[in-house]
Amino acid sequence: MPHSDDLLWGAVADISRFAALLTMAELGLADHLAHGPLSTSDLAARCDADAPRLRRVLRELAGMGVVRGAGPDAYDLTERGTALRSDVPDSVRSSIRMLGEEGFWHAMGNLPATVRNGGSAFAARYGHLYEYLAANPGAGKLFDDYMTARAIPFTEGLAKRYDFPDTATMVDVAGGKGHILATVLHANPDMRGILFDLEHVADRARELLAAEGLAERSEVVTGDFFAGVPAGGDVYLLASVLHNWDDDDAVTILRNVRRAMDPGGRVLVLEVVLPDDEAPHLGKDIDMRMLAIFDGGTERSREEYAALLDRADLRLAEVVELGAGASLIEARPR
């Protein structure tokens, strides 16, 4: 078969592989296998599953290299499969569970309807993503865990590759649980931070910042960034924020930041920046999720971000590659 056919049939098979991984993540199979091999019947009993059906999923997972046979009708966890344990630093379990969550599954499965109708099938059924997460605490926790895991590589890149002002106050706009703010404050011990987000996020952020020993150097403020953001910051971080909104809404957010910031301040936009060519790119994959979930949310190119900043009386000063497909766009007042 031609190579293109391999690619297309591989994509068809990927739905089955993802479903098997989702089953592994939801049932916590990697956690149950963490201390050694188990028979299928023992594993089924531990995760309250049907043994014959679980056996078929394990067979698929073995073909993917995340488990391996360990004697008659028994399985063990592989090194690759360890990444699905919930207690390892780079666990992908929450990410898989989030992408298989009911609303997200509906969104991706109805992408054709979204494209045909010109509006997100997810939004039509559930409303805006953040309303959905606020109304569904279980999904909200999954989303927080997913965003934390997804942010680890480029958060470390941000702390190492960007030169923050020594005594600055950074306002992390829509900062979620505070994992990015905590990383930056640890790397810059003379900085202070303000985490700004919706009320239902605030308690989780306070807990994380306190657990990181940063309660004295940080503050959690609640509000709506369409109405305004905390004033007087030296650095305003917008991490994975603007891609959730159409151009007009993104400009509104940026204008509110521009009004709030000190004259010598700066805005840091942390996003995946799309290339101008047709080569495969992580941002193009993520853009399919943005298209499916949001009415107007989109990944953008450098030129498109520069245009948004210009409308908000900001100028694009620098783009810093952070790794893991993410970039940091630094903007300054005009």
Automatic annotation (TrEMBL):
<dbReference type="GO" id="GO:0032259">
    <property type="term" value="P:methylation"/>
</dbReference>
<dbReference type="InterPro" id="IPR012967">
    <property type="entry name" value="COMT_dimerisation"/>
</dbReference>
<dbReference type="InterPro" id="IPR036388">
    <property type="entry name" value="WH-like_DNA-bd_sf"/>
</dbReference>
<protein>
    <submittedName>
        <fullName>Methyltransferase</fullName>
    </submittedName>
</protein>
<feature type="domain" description="O-methyltransferase C-terminal">
    <location>
        <begin position="110"/>
        <end position="312"/>
    </location>
</feature>
<dbReference type="GO" id="GO:0008168">
    <property type="term" value="F:methyltransferase activity"/>
</dbReference>
<keyword id="KW-0489">Methyltransferase</keyword>
<keyword id="KW-0808">Transferase</keyword>
<dbReference type="Pfam" id="PF08100">
    <property type="entry name" value="Dimerisation"/>
</dbReference>
<dbReference type="InterPro" id="IPR029063">
    <property type="entry name" value="SAM-dependent_MTases_sf"/>
</dbReference>
<dbReference type="Pfam" id="PF00891">
    <property type="entry name" value="Methyltransf_2"/>
</dbReference>
<keyword id="KW-0949">S-adenosyl-L-methionine</keyword>
<dbReference type="InterPro" id="IPR001077">
    <property type="entry name" value="COMT_C"/>
</dbReference>
<feature type="domain" description="O-methyltransferase dimerisation">
    <location>
        <begin position="19"/>
        <end position="84"/>
    </location>
</feature>
<dbReference type="InterPro" id="IPR036390">
    <property type="entry name" value="WH_DNA-bd_sf"/>
</dbReference>
<dbReference type="InterPro" id="IPR016461">
    <property type="entry name" value="COMT-like"/>
</dbReference>
